[in-house]
Design goal:
This protein is mainly α and about 325 residues long. Helix content is about 80%, strand content about 0%. Helix 2 crosses helix 11, helix 7 crosses helix 8 and helix 9 packs antiparallel against helix 12. It is globular and about 55 Å long.
Length: about 325
Protein backbone atom coordinates (compact mmCIF):
# COMPACT_ATOMS: atom_id res chain seq x y z
CA UNK A 1 0.00 0.00 0.00
CA UNK A 2 2.89 2.37 0.66
CA UNK A 3 4.28 1.55 -2.78
CA UNK A 4 0.85 2.30 -4.26
CA UNK A 5 0.74 5.64 -2.48
CA UNK A 6 4.23 6.35 -3.83
CA UNK A 7 3.01 5.68 -7.39
CA UNK A 8 -0.06 7.88 -6.88
CA UNK A 9 2.14 10.68 -5.56
CA UNK A 10 4.32 10.41 -8.68
CA UNK A 11 1.59 10.33 -11.31
CA UNK A 12 -1.02 12.43 -9.52
CA UNK A 13 -4.46 10.76 -9.25
CA UNK A 14 -7.28 12.23 -11.32
CA UNK A 15 -9.87 11.20 -8.70
CA UNK A 16 -9.72 10.50 -4.98
CA UNK A 17 -10.99 6.92 -5.25
CA UNK A 18 -7.59 5.26 -5.77
CA UNK A 19 -6.40 7.00 -2.61
CA UNK A 20 -9.49 5.94 -0.65
CA UNK A 21 -9.10 2.36 -1.90
CA UNK A 22 -5.46 2.12 -0.83
CA UNK A 23 -6.23 3.50 2.62
CA UNK A 24 -9.20 1.13 3.03
CA UNK A 25 -7.10 -1.90 2.09
CA UNK A 26 -4.35 -0.69 4.40
CA UNK A 27 -6.85 -0.52 7.28
CA UNK A 28 -8.07 -4.04 6.48
CA UNK A 29 -4.49 -5.31 6.62
CA UNK A 30 -4.00 -3.65 10.00
CA UNK A 31 -7.05 -5.57 11.28
CA UNK A 32 -5.21 -8.80 10.40
CA UNK A 33 -1.76 -7.71 11.57
CA UNK A 34 -2.65 -6.32 14.99
CA UNK A 35 -4.53 -9.35 16.43
CA UNK A 36 -1.79 -11.72 15.24
CA UNK A 37 0.94 -9.48 16.65
CA UNK A 38 -0.80 -9.04 20.03
CA UNK A 39 -1.71 -12.72 20.39
CA UNK A 40 1.98 -13.66 20.05
CA UNK A 41 2.99 -11.74 23.17
CA UNK A 42 2.01 -14.40 25.78
CA UNK A 43 4.07 -16.96 23.86
CA UNK A 44 7.17 -14.77 24.00
CA UNK A 45 7.17 -13.71 27.67
CA UNK A 46 5.89 -15.23 30.93
CA UNK A 47 2.32 -14.28 31.81
CA UNK A 48 3.59 -12.39 34.87
CA UNK A 49 5.69 -10.17 32.59
CA UNK A 50 2.78 -9.17 30.33
CA UNK A 51 2.22 -5.71 31.89
CA UNK A 52 5.91 -4.81 31.46
CA UNK A 53 6.01 -6.23 27.93
CA UNK A 54 2.84 -4.36 26.98
CA UNK A 55 4.29 -1.15 28.42
CA UNK A 56 7.38 -1.65 26.26
CA UNK A 57 5.11 -2.16 23.26
CA UNK A 58 3.28 1.05 24.19
CA UNK A 59 6.59 2.93 24.24
CA UNK A 60 7.31 1.91 20.66
CA UNK A 61 3.77 2.67 19.55
CA UNK A 62 3.68 6.13 21.09
CA UNK A 63 7.17 7.02 19.85
CA UNK A 64 5.83 6.23 16.39
CA UNK A 65 2.70 8.32 16.98
CA UNK A 66 4.69 11.34 18.12
CA UNK A 67 7.70 11.21 15.77
CA UNK A 68 6.12 9.69 12.65
CA UNK A 69 3.89 12.64 11.72
CA UNK A 70 6.74 15.03 12.55
CA UNK A 71 9.21 13.22 10.27
CA UNK A 72 6.57 12.94 7.55
CA UNK A 73 5.81 16.65 7.75
CA UNK A 74 9.47 17.60 7.52
CA UNK A 75 10.09 15.19 4.61
CA UNK A 76 7.05 16.43 2.69
CA UNK A 77 8.03 20.06 3.25
CA UNK A 78 11.61 19.50 2.11
CA UNK A 79 11.24 16.85 -0.61
CA UNK A 80 7.56 16.31 -1.38
CA UNK A 81 5.09 13.44 -1.11
CA UNK A 82 6.84 10.93 -3.44
CA UNK A 83 9.99 10.93 -1.30
CA UNK A 84 7.95 10.53 1.92
CA UNK A 85 6.00 7.56 0.57
CA UNK A 86 9.16 6.09 -0.96
CA UNK A 87 10.88 6.13 2.42
CA UNK A 88 7.77 4.54 3.92
CA UNK A 89 7.84 1.71 1.38
CA UNK A 90 11.56 1.06 1.92
CA UNK A 91 11.22 0.90 5.71
CA UNK A 92 8.27 -1.48 5.38
CA UNK A 93 10.50 -3.65 3.20
CA UNK A 94 13.05 -3.88 6.00
CA UNK A 95 10.35 -4.84 8.49
CA UNK A 96 8.94 -7.49 6.13
CA UNK A 97 12.40 -9.02 5.70
CA UNK A 98 12.76 -9.34 9.47
CA UNK A 99 9.27 -10.86 9.81
CA UNK A 100 9.93 -13.38 7.04
CA UNK A 101 12.88 -14.75 9.01
CA UNK A 102 10.81 -15.44 12.14
CA UNK A 103 9.91 -19.09 12.88
CA UNK A 104 6.27 -20.24 12.79
CA UNK A 105 4.30 -19.69 16.01
CA UNK A 106 1.11 -21.80 15.93
CA UNK A 107 -1.25 -21.84 18.95
CA UNK A 108 0.10 -24.15 21.64
CA UNK A 109 -3.25 -25.82 22.38
CA UNK A 110 -4.61 -26.20 18.88
CA UNK A 111 -6.89 -23.75 17.17
CA UNK A 112 -9.25 -23.68 14.21
CA UNK A 113 -8.90 -22.39 10.69
CA UNK A 114 -10.04 -18.78 10.35
CA UNK A 115 -13.62 -18.45 9.16
CA UNK A 116 -17.18 -17.87 10.30
CA UNK A 117 -17.02 -20.85 12.65
CA UNK A 118 -13.98 -19.45 14.42
CA UNK A 119 -15.74 -16.11 14.87
CA UNK A 120 -18.72 -17.92 16.43
CA UNK A 121 -16.32 -19.78 18.74
CA UNK A 122 -14.87 -16.48 19.87
CA UNK A 123 -18.29 -14.96 20.58
CA UNK A 124 -19.34 -18.13 22.42
CA UNK A 125 -16.23 -17.88 24.57
CA UNK A 126 -16.99 -14.23 25.40
CA UNK A 127 -20.53 -15.07 26.53
CA UNK A 128 -19.24 -16.77 29.66
CA UNK A 129 -16.41 -14.34 30.44
CA UNK A 130 -17.76 -11.19 32.15
CA UNK A 131 -14.27 -9.97 33.11
CA UNK A 132 -13.06 -10.20 29.51
CA UNK A 133 -16.22 -8.46 28.29
CA UNK A 134 -15.54 -5.69 30.82
CA UNK A 135 -12.11 -5.00 29.25
CA UNK A 136 -13.97 -4.18 26.03
CA UNK A 137 -17.01 -2.42 27.50
CA UNK A 138 -15.13 0.02 29.72
CA UNK A 139 -12.88 1.07 26.85
CA UNK A 140 -15.90 1.67 24.62
CA UNK A 141 -17.34 3.94 27.32
CA UNK A 142 -14.05 5.86 27.58
CA UNK A 143 -13.59 6.30 23.84
CA UNK A 144 -17.19 7.03 22.81
CA UNK A 145 -17.86 9.64 25.49
CA UNK A 146 -14.40 10.84 26.51
CA UNK A 147 -12.48 11.19 23.22
CA UNK A 148 -12.93 14.77 21.89
CA UNK A 149 -10.17 14.68 19.27
CA UNK A 150 -12.61 15.55 16.47
CA UNK A 151 -13.05 18.93 18.18
CA UNK A 152 -9.35 19.74 18.55
CA UNK A 153 -9.19 22.01 15.44
CA UNK A 154 -12.29 23.89 16.62
CA UNK A 155 -11.06 24.16 20.21
CA UNK A 156 -7.62 25.31 19.03
CA UNK A 157 -9.19 28.41 17.50
CA UNK A 158 -12.16 29.17 19.78
CA UNK A 159 -10.95 28.06 23.20
CA UNK A 160 -7.19 28.58 22.95
CA UNK A 161 -6.97 31.33 20.33
CA UNK A 162 -4.57 29.48 18.05
CA UNK A 163 -4.51 27.72 14.71
CA UNK A 164 -3.12 24.60 13.08
CA UNK A 165 -0.02 24.56 15.26
CA UNK A 166 -2.14 24.68 18.40
CA UNK A 167 -4.30 21.84 17.09
CA UNK A 168 -1.13 19.84 16.46
CA UNK A 169 -0.09 20.36 20.08
CA UNK A 170 -3.45 19.09 21.29
CA UNK A 171 -3.23 15.99 19.13
CA UNK A 172 0.33 15.18 20.19
CA UNK A 173 -0.26 15.86 23.91
CA UNK A 174 -2.25 12.64 24.39
CA UNK A 175 0.45 10.49 22.75
CA UNK A 176 3.22 12.32 24.62
CA UNK A 177 1.47 11.65 27.92
CA UNK A 178 1.03 7.99 27.05
CA UNK A 179 4.71 7.75 26.14
CA UNK A 180 5.79 9.38 29.41
CA UNK A 181 3.50 7.05 31.37
CA UNK A 182 4.88 3.97 29.63
CA UNK A 183 8.49 4.99 30.22
CA UNK A 184 7.71 5.42 33.95
CA UNK A 185 5.75 2.16 34.09
CA UNK A 186 8.19 -0.01 36.03
CA UNK A 187 5.54 -0.40 38.74
CA UNK A 188 3.01 -2.08 36.42
CA UNK A 189 4.18 -5.61 37.28
CA UNK A 190 3.54 -5.05 41.00
CA UNK A 191 -0.18 -4.29 40.55
CA UNK A 192 -2.40 -7.25 41.48
CA UNK A 193 -5.82 -5.56 41.31
CA UNK A 194 -5.53 -4.86 37.60
CA UNK A 195 -9.28 -4.52 37.03
CA UNK A 196 -9.50 -1.86 39.73
CA UNK A 197 -6.52 -0.12 38.15
CA UNK A 198 -8.40 -0.01 34.82
CA UNK A 199 -11.49 1.50 36.48
CA UNK A 200 -9.40 4.17 38.24
CA UNK A 201 -7.48 4.97 35.05
CA UNK A 202 -10.71 5.42 33.05
CA UNK A 203 -12.14 7.66 35.77
CA UNK A 204 -8.96 9.79 35.68
CA UNK A 205 -9.27 9.93 31.88
CA UNK A 206 -12.85 11.19 32.14
CA UNK A 207 -12.10 13.75 34.86
CA UNK A 208 -9.11 15.24 33.02
CA UNK A 209 -11.05 15.41 29.74
CA UNK A 210 -13.90 17.25 31.49
CA UNK A 211 -11.39 19.68 33.05
CA UNK A 212 -9.75 20.16 29.64
CA UNK A 213 -13.10 21.34 28.30
CA UNK A 214 -13.20 24.14 30.89
CA UNK A 215 -9.68 25.63 30.63
CA UNK A 216 -8.59 28.37 28.23
CA UNK A 217 -4.87 28.28 28.94
CA UNK A 218 -3.00 26.24 26.33
CA UNK A 219 -0.33 24.97 28.72
CA UNK A 220 -2.98 23.77 31.17
CA UNK A 221 -4.92 22.15 28.34
CA UNK A 222 -1.85 20.31 27.03
CA UNK A 223 -0.94 19.09 30.53
CA UNK A 224 -4.47 17.79 31.13
CA UNK A 225 -4.44 15.94 27.80
CA UNK A 226 -1.04 14.46 28.67
CA UNK A 227 -2.42 13.18 31.99
CA UNK A 228 -5.39 11.74 30.11
CA UNK A 229 -3.03 10.02 27.66
CA UNK A 230 -1.04 8.47 30.51
CA UNK A 231 -4.26 7.21 32.13
CA UNK A 232 -5.44 5.73 28.83
CA UNK A 233 -2.10 3.97 28.38
CA UNK A 234 -2.34 2.45 31.88
CA UNK A 235 -5.85 1.23 31.10
CA UNK A 236 -4.65 -0.32 27.82
CA UNK A 237 -1.73 -2.12 29.50
CA UNK A 238 -3.86 -3.76 32.17
CA UNK A 239 -6.81 -4.51 29.88
CA UNK A 240 -4.48 -6.28 27.49
CA UNK A 241 -2.85 -8.22 30.35
CA UNK A 242 -6.23 -9.33 31.71
CA UNK A 243 -7.39 -10.37 28.24
CA UNK A 244 -4.30 -12.46 27.51
CA UNK A 245 -4.27 -14.22 30.87
CA UNK A 246 -7.99 -15.04 30.73
CA UNK A 247 -7.87 -16.34 27.15
CA UNK A 248 -6.43 -19.73 26.07
CA UNK A 249 -3.78 -19.55 23.38
CA UNK A 250 -6.07 -21.02 20.71
CA UNK A 251 -8.57 -18.18 21.25
CA UNK A 252 -6.20 -15.25 21.63
CA UNK A 253 -6.14 -14.27 17.97
CA UNK A 254 -9.94 -14.07 17.81
CA UNK A 255 -10.24 -12.15 21.06
CA UNK A 256 -7.46 -9.78 20.01
CA UNK A 257 -9.49 -9.21 16.85
CA UNK A 258 -12.38 -8.05 19.02
CA UNK A 259 -9.90 -5.91 20.98
CA UNK A 260 -8.77 -4.20 17.77
CA UNK A 261 -12.38 -3.58 16.71
CA UNK A 262 -12.99 -1.86 20.05
CA UNK A 263 -9.73 0.11 19.98
CA UNK A 264 -10.21 1.22 16.36
CA UNK A 265 -13.99 1.64 16.35
CA UNK A 266 -14.49 3.31 19.73
CA UNK A 267 -12.63 6.54 18.88
CA UNK A 268 -14.51 6.81 15.55
CA UNK A 269 -17.83 6.55 17.36
CA UNK A 270 -16.42 9.08 19.80
CA UNK A 271 -15.74 11.45 16.91
CA UNK A 272 -19.40 11.15 15.88
CA UNK A 273 -20.66 11.66 19.43
CA UNK A 274 -18.40 14.65 20.09
CA UNK A 275 -19.24 16.32 16.78
CA UNK A 276 -22.97 15.78 17.21
CA UNK A 277 -23.01 17.16 20.78
CA UNK A 278 -20.89 20.14 19.71
CA UNK A 279 -23.28 20.91 16.86
CA UNK A 280 -26.42 20.60 18.96
CA UNK A 281 -25.04 22.40 22.02
CA UNK A 282 -21.43 23.67 21.98
CA UNK A 283 -17.87 22.29 21.82
CA UNK A 284 -17.36 23.04 25.51
CA UNK A 285 -20.56 21.22 26.46
CA UNK A 286 -19.51 18.27 24.28
CA UNK A 287 -16.11 17.87 25.94
CA UNK A 288 -17.25 18.42 29.53
CA UNK A 289 -20.39 16.28 29.30
CA UNK A 290 -18.46 13.54 27.51
CA UNK A 291 -15.83 13.39 30.24
CA UNK A 292 -18.47 13.27 32.96
CA UNK A 293 -20.42 10.59 31.07
CA UNK A 294 -17.20 8.56 30.86
CA UNK A 295 -16.78 8.76 34.66
CA UNK A 296 -20.42 7.81 35.27
CA UNK A 297 -20.22 4.93 32.80
CA UNK A 298 -17.06 3.53 34.40
CA UNK A 299 -18.60 3.68 37.88
CA UNK A 300 -21.82 2.00 36.70
CA UNK A 301 -19.95 -0.78 34.89
CA UNK A 302 -17.74 -1.41 37.92
CA UNK A 303 -20.84 -1.66 40.11
CA UNK A 304 -22.55 -3.99 37.63
CA UNK A 305 -19.56 -6.39 37.44
CA UNK A 306 -17.87 -6.21 40.87
CA UNK A 307 -15.67 -9.22 40.05
CA UNK A 308 -13.75 -6.98 37.62
CA UNK A 309 -12.57 -4.65 40.39
CA UNK A 310 -11.76 -7.68 42.56
CA UNK A 311 -9.74 -9.34 39.79
CA UNK A 312 -6.45 -10.64 41.26
CA UNK A 313 -3.80 -10.96 38.54
CA UNK A 314 -1.55 -13.30 40.55
CA UNK A 315 -4.35 -15.75 41.29
CA UNK A 316 -5.52 -15.61 37.68
CA UNK A 317 -1.99 -16.21 36.36
CA UNK A 318 -1.47 -19.19 38.69
CA UNK A 319 -4.76 -20.70 37.52
CA UNK A 320 -3.92 -20.04 33.85
CA UNK A 321 -0.45 -21.59 34.13
CA UNK A 322 -1.86 -24.74 35.73
CA UNK A 323 -4.66 -25.18 33.19
CA UNK A 324 -3.14 -23.80 29.97
CA UNK A 325 -2.84 -27.22 28.33
CA UNK A 326 -6.06 -28.86 29.48
CA UNK A 327 -8.49 -25.95 29.50
CA UNK A 328 -11.29 -26.03 26.96
CA UNK A 329 -12.43 -22.86 25.16
CA UNK A 330 -15.24 -21.24 27.12
CA UNK A 331 -14.13 -22.51 30.53
CA UNK A 332 -13.88 -19.83 33.23
CA UNK A 333 -10.16 -18.87 33.51
CA UNK A 334 -10.62 -17.88 37.16
Amino acid sequence: MSAGLFVLALVGPRTVWPLFTLVAVQSALVSVDQPARRSMMPSLVPLRALPAATALQQIGWNIALTTGPLLAGVTITVSGYPVAYGIDAVTFGAALYALARLPPMPPTDGGTRAGVASVVDGLRFLRGQPIVVMTFAIDIIAMVFGMPRALFPELAGTQFGGGARTAGLLYSAVAAGALAGAVAGGWFGRVRRQGLAVVIAVIIWGVTIAMFGLVHNLIAGVLLLAIAGAADMISAVFRNAILNVATPDAMRGRLQGVFIVVVAGGPRLGDLEAGTAATVFSPTFSVVSGGLACVAGAVLLAAAVPSFSRYDSQAAITAAESREVTREPGEDPL
